[in-house]
Amino acid sequence: MTRLQEDYNKRVRPELMKELNLSNFMAVPTIKKIVINCGVGEAVTNGNAIEEVSEIISLIAGQKPVVNKAKKAIAAFKIREGLEIGVSTTLRGDRMWEFFDKLVNVVFPRTKDFRGVNPKAFDGAGNYSIGILEHTVFPEIDANKVAKIRPLQLTIVTSTKDDKQAYALLDKFGFPFIKNVNKS
């Protein structure tokens, strides 16, 4: 059991039960999975781009990603149906908790000019999406050996369908939300 998972079971779950007025501990929200995605638009012209990004995601996530293919042809972008245009991986279990711990305690503090994440980035179904502009903020990546800086998209999927409960869950783990954003 990872450090954050143990913290969830001993501290976060009981606190959320009281805070959200839940009677059943199984109704307390939890993180189900984290999806890491990277679109590789340059794969149209650069054949090695998919392998390069796949290797980067493997280092960051600790598991091999899936190569995503285009579902439709888009002539304006020179994309044919079936062309490899991105990579993604889904983390669950211990790897997910370790990655979340690394994200909150290592990656965000290493991000240049980081002021926090937007608390309005929930999707209405309890999931939170983040864009990371530089993959070099991850400790597994040697910035001196990077050919091109690539952006990543992360989606944290929770067990709740309510954004307020998902916000409370992530906040209990010390997720760095910007505190004084206009709540409209």
Instruction: Give, in order, the helices and strands.
Output: HEHEEHEEH
User: What class do helices, strands and sheet pairing give?
Assistant: alpha+beta
Describe the strand arrangement of the main beta sheet, using strand numbers: 2-3-1-5-4
The percentage helix is 25-40%
Structural write-up:
This protein is α+β, with helices and mostly antiparallel strands. It is built from four helices and five strands, in the order αβαββαββα. The chain starts with a helix and ends in a 12-residue tail after the last helix. The model has no long low-confidence stretch (mean pLDDT 88).
List keywords for this structure.
184 residues, alpha+beta, 50s Ribosomal Protein L5, Chain: A, five-stranded antiparallel β-sheet, 5 strands, 32% helix
Write the layout of secondary structure elements.
Layout: H1 3-19, E1 31-39, H2 49-61, E2 66-69, E3 84-91, H3 93-110, E4 128-132, E5 152-158, H4 163-172
Antiparallel strand pairs: 1-3, 1-5, 2-3, 4-5
